[in-house]
Amino acid sequence: MNRRRGVALVSVLWVLAILSVMGLGFAMTVRVYGELVDNRVLKAQAQGLARTGMEMAFELYYAGQAEGRTYNASNDEWMAFSSEDIDHELADGTYSIRVVDEAGKLNVNLAEQEHLYALIGDEDVAAAIMDWRDGDDDSSLGGAESFYYEESDPPYRARNGRFRSIGELALVQGITSEMLWGPDEDQYRERRPEEIRGLADLLTVIAIDSNHSSSTGNPRISLNTASEQEIEEALSGVIAEGSIQSIIDYRRQRTTRAQPQDGQTGAPPLQVPGELQPPTGGGGFGGGGPVGIRQFDPTQGGFDPTQGMEGPQQPGQAGEEEEAQQAFASTGELINVPSLSDEDIQAIWDLVTAESAGVIEGRININTAPQEVLASVIDADLAQEIIEYRTSRGPLPTVAHLLSVDPSVRANFVELANLLTTRSYVFTIEATGRAGRDEITHRIRAVVDLSGDEPNYLMICHY
User: Please, where are the H alpha helices in 214-324?
Assistant: First the structure.
């Protein structure tokens, strides 16, 4: 009898143990599923917070625009803020915003090869980028064309056209994921203001400058097509009458000089405005070129950018021969007007234009570009002077204010003016939402064109 009771007791204990394990397993399953549900709820809340932050960034931008404010400085409060910074109380979490100016980067679709080389530091990669975007399958020295990429697994071809996204650079020979985006462990971490991790922070595929309107939104007056009376009315009270007359006289002389005479075909073609072209004169890219533009030094090795290079064409810039006959081929030629002082040029710079294109691509914002980007297109010493000037005195109002940074830029101001700007319209906005005590996060990264009355999303991703 006792033996049977012992067996029964053991059986009961086993049953209880099994039931306990099953109960514990069920409880853990319920807990896990509960946490998953909670995390999904928190993830949805974090996504909503990120969207709220994105919309708040737009609201603050357009509110500032309505007040006549421009966002053209890398240290502007709008470029990095959080819900706490603006006292935006939220019941379910917080958000933070980081804004990057695309005009503060080098345009990979328009940059010359020597500019890419100066920024990347690898001439083969620079050549491969040029081969990827050019219109043929002829490989340059150190570059790569479709025949190279067709050996990949899976095979693909070079686009032979403009890059459509910065991510497309990962397909180019010599560019690794870490080189483009930074170390793997940093790729999904929230970025700090002005942090540079890889080429994606230094290169862009789109950056535009509105040419037909001033920073206040008013129409600019054309130095080439406006009547003399219109020029006088627009500039009266801004600069002296004698300075206005100097502009008019210069235009008369240049227009007359450009007319074909005695069977000639007219004046030699002037530089097409808006193009990122190598500077001319003074020995070209070798020694003795104009101060300020980054020069090619053959003693330092690398390729010779004057060999086999073509300047990128701006979209919509038809009628080059017609523009070549105009008095001002670019706004920067104001520097050549006799009796026009640096202060005069600075005063009228935002009010006038010589270029016909409504939108100009590829110009770099000197107020937001990091030193690496500036030094890729201009002299490194001038790049450092710009950084120091804007740090101590604030953003430069116009490109003409480079004359206050370093008066020696007068020698090549025309070229500098075609490379640089102080205005921005396309931004990358990174909005991070955080929900719950464990701060479940959701991040939205978008490239947005803010030149219109409403934001235009050019690219958006969630992670």
Answer: 228-235, 241-258, 320-324
- Contact of 207 with 420, CB cutoff 8 Å: no
Asked if 176 contacts 197 with a C-beta cutoff of 8 angstroms, the reply is no
Domain ranges of the chain: 2-104+426-462, 110-204, 208-421
Q: Which of 197, 146, 196, 154 is nearest to 172 (CA)?
A: 146
Q: Which of 432, 427, 368, 425 is nearest to 97 (CA)?
A: 432
Gap between the Cα atoms of 392 and 386, Å rounded: 10
Q: Are 172 and 152 in contact (CB under 8 A)?
A: no
Residue in 223, 246, 408 with CA at minimum distance from that of residue 341:
246
Mean pLDDT of the chain: 81
Structure tokens that stand for 227 in this block: 């009547």
Q: Which of 203, 150, 197 has the alpha carbon at shortest distance from 173?
A: 150
- Helices 241-258 + 228-235 axis angle, to 10: 150
**Residue 179: alpha-carbon gap to chain centroid:** 18
Strand partners, 433: 95, 442
- 110-204 falls under which CATH superfamily? EpsJ-like (1.10.40.60)
Reduce the DSSP state of residue 248 to 3 states and report it: helix
Tell me the pLDDT tens digit for each residue of 317-362: 444 444 446 889 999 999 999 999 999 999 999 999 999 998 999 9
**pLDDT higher at 33 or 94:** 94
Spatial separation of the C-alpha atoms in residues 459 and 205, rounded to whole Å: 11
CA separation for the pair 103, 80 (Å, rounded): 17
Please report, for residues 187, 380, 401, 451, the alpha-carbon distance to residue 217 in angstroms, rounded to integers and kept in the order given: 38, 33, 20, 10
| Distance, CA of 422 to CA of 366 (rounded, Å) | 6
* Predicted local distance difference test score (pLDDT) of residue 240: 96
Rounded Cα–Cα distance for residues 85 and 96 (Å)? 9
Spell out the residues 6+ positions from residue 4 whose beta carbon is closer than 8 angstroms to its own: none
- pLDDT tens, 408-418? 999 999 999 99
Task: Measure Cα distances from 351 to 46, 323, 324, 407, 459 in Å.
Answer: 45, 20, 22, 22, 32
Q: pLDDT over 70 for what percent of the chain?
A: 76
Q: How far is CA 218 from CA 215, 234, 334, 449, in A?
A: 8, 11, 20, 19
- For 453, phi and psi rounded to 5 degrees? -75, -20
pLDDT at site 146: 93
Please give the model's pTM, rounded to 2 decimal places.
0.77
Token pair of 160 as six digits = 């032979």
Give dist(CA 330, CA 354) in Å, integer: 5
